[in-house]
Amino acid sequence: MHELSIAMRLVESLEEELANQGDVTVSAVNLRIGALTGLVPEALEFSWEIASDDSVLKGSRLAIEIVDAAGYCPQCREERIIANLQSFRCPVCLTPITKITGGHELEILTLEVLDKDETVAETEPT
Amino acid sequence: MSQPRILDIRKKILNKNDELAHDMRAQFAANGVFVANLVSSPGSGKTELLRRTMIALGDRYVAAAVTGDLATENDAERLAQSGSLTKQILTGTMCHLEADMVANAISDWDLAGIDFLFVENVGNLVCPGDFDLGEDIRVMLVATTEGEDKPLKYPTLINTADVVIINKMDIAEAVECDVPLLERNIHEVRPGAEVFKVSAKTGAGVDEWVDYLQMRFEDKRIQVA
Question: Is the pTM of this model over 0.80?
Answer without folding.
Answer: yes
